[in-house]
Design brief:
single chain; 64 residues; three-stranded antiparallel β-sheet; 58% helix
Length: 64
């Protein structure tokens, strides 16, 4: 799966669940640390659809 397809899947999951731990994302999508960091940066800074809570949880902040 390419990066942007993966990103779309993560966005859909985050939108649906509203809160997802980084560990759950790693387990669900079999992500290594580097890919998880790239996704996190894309969600938090480029797309601005999530915010971080205590370095452990992503919280959906995009439009419904």
């Amino acid at each position: 799966m390419d990066f942007y397809t993966l990103l779309d899947h993560v966005i859909d999951l985050l939108r649906q669940r509203q809160r997802v731990t980084y560990r759950a994302l790693q387990r669900q999508f079999d992500l290594d640390e580097e890919t998880l960091n790239d996704l996190t940066n894309e969600l938090l800074y480029a797309q601005q659809v999530a915010r971080d809570e205590d370095g452990r949880v992503l919280i959906w902040s995009g439009s419904p």
